[in-house]
Design a protein that fits this description.
Layout: H1 2-21, H2 51-73, H3 90-109, H4 125-143, E1 154-156, E2 162-164, H5 166-188
Helix pairs in contact: 1-5, 2-4, 2-5, 3-4, 3-5
Length: 201
């Protein structure tokens, strides 16, 4: 039970990081006369019967845009790049993202995982980008069917162990944050600005 609680806290922390510090440029200091944001009452949010499913669906577009943008930004001849010999290549990171999307979106939404040909880290940039897009398309279709009534179901997840289905949703959200952070680091090590750090047009 202690291990499950620790994992929950870790995943929730990753989600918080994605929402508040995902390779974002530094905020400009507030004017001394400006009203602190903390003092402004937030706008009321409409109630929903599926707050977890709705929240994961809200995170999907930004995560998809950033991760696919990172893949597009990396030159094709850099997909074998590793920051150190012990780390995975950029191409391997992309195959991991693809596998994670299919696995966790299927688990979170309680839909069958499609039987696709596994992407390989040695595949071309074009092939890996197309496979990553397809995996996000699957997530969009799957998460549209997700509802919170099944989040208490016991499902097999990490290491073949049983977890509440809610853990798949948390793993998906924190995984997107982790995967984009890793991709952004690979890009910066090759002197390429990640999508979220690009100047607004």
């Amino acid at each position: 039970m202690k291990h499950a609680l620790a994992l929950f806290v870790l995943l929730a922390s990753g989600l918080f990081t994605m929402l508040h510090a995902q390779d974002m440029p530094a905020a400009k200091p507030a004017s001394p006369t400006a009203t602190p944001k903390s003092a402004v009452m937030p706008s009321p949010v409409a109630a929903t019967k599926d707050p977890v499913a709705t929240s994961v669906r809200m995170l999907l577009p930004r995560s998809q845009k950033n991760i696919l943008g990172a893949i597009e930004a990396m030159p094709g001849d850099k997909f074998a790049f590793k920051p150190t010999a012990e780390q995975m290549s950029f191409g391997h990171l992309i195959t991991h993202i693809i596998e994670s999307n299919y696995f966790l979106c299927a688990k979170a939404a309680d839909v069958p995982e499609p039987k696709n040909e596994a992407a390989k880290e040695t595949d071309s940039k074009e092939k890996l980008l197309a496979a990553a897009k397809a995996s996000f398309d699957f997530c969009g279709e799957s998460l549209a069917k997700m509802d919170d009534s099944k989040l208490g179901d016991s499902v097999e997840l990490f290491g073949g162990r049983q977890f509440p289905r809610a853990m798949a949703a948390l793993g998906l959200a924190s995984g997107w944050a982790d995967h984009y952070a890793a991709a952004a680091m690979y890009l910066r090590l090759n002197n390429i600005l990640p999508p979220s750090a690009q100047p607004k047009k």
